[in-house]
Structure prediction request, 194 residues.
Amino acid sequence: MIEEIIKAGNYNDILAIIKGFRNGAVYGAKIRFPHALVMTFLFRRSDPKTMAKQILQLTYQHSKNLAFFVTIYKSLLLIQRKIKGKEHNPDSFIAGLIGGYIIFGSDNAVNQQIVLYLFSRISTGLARLAHMKGLVPAPDYSFSAFAAVTWGVVMWLFRHNRDSLQGGLQASMQYLYNDSDKFTDLRTLLWHNK
Prediction:
């Protein structure tokens, strides 16, 4: 019976929303689990049970958030298309805006990382779009300027306003820039940190 419904194609819009939920959940787990595993083992100091629980919690949150975002986004696109008769240019922005606020509007480590990742991707995308529209001379120049400003700002923030940065970034930068200043012998210089 389900196979017949799928093959008939009468419910493709709804089935696409269901499949989007599934894909969001799977993709979120695929992305977050290895990241949480590595970051937890590198930067957390606790017992294995607590670390495993944290890895699973972060994976679940990322997976759940993507699944529900995809569901809201695709549902809002469908609703707008049904109301207007076809999809219009701003419809995806409106659906993304609403879904982003509902799902990713809470300030937590997982949402911060996802939103900051997206922000970096849209920044480079907008730089490329500016080149395609003839507003800037070359995409390499736009990316070079973007990279320079990004690194200049993050290094200044880390050096002078560290608490304004996300915790994971602070930990990474602490390891790279501050912990590398601390050594007492050859072992702590080349092998063991601190």
Observations:
- Residues 1-106 form one domain.
